[in-house]
């Protein structure tokens, strides 16, 4: 698919698949860490996400990378990344692909 035929949501999901938790060789999207992507007026993007653990030492790095990569997408006017631990992440939130990759299946 060319860049032009992808929706803004597709492009956001695509870029989120390039963000990795440094301790796990699977991207944050497949891990199920992205709870919600909202696209509002003027293509303001709000992302609600979590981390695998509340005390994640690279939390700031991951959030900064999400913000920078989504902000760099053409047509995105602003980005707001919200971190939540409700509900807490668990391995059932991972995609089948992630579970296979990590040997949970």
TrEMBL record:
InterPro entries: Fe-S_Maturation_MIP18 (IPR052339), FSCA_dom_sf (IPR034904), MIP18-like (IPR002744). Residues 9-81 form the MIP18 family-like domain. This is FeS assembly SUF system protein. Gene3D superfamilies: Fe-S cluster assembly (FSCA). PANTHER family: FE-S PROTEIN MATURATION AUXILIARY FACTOR YITW.
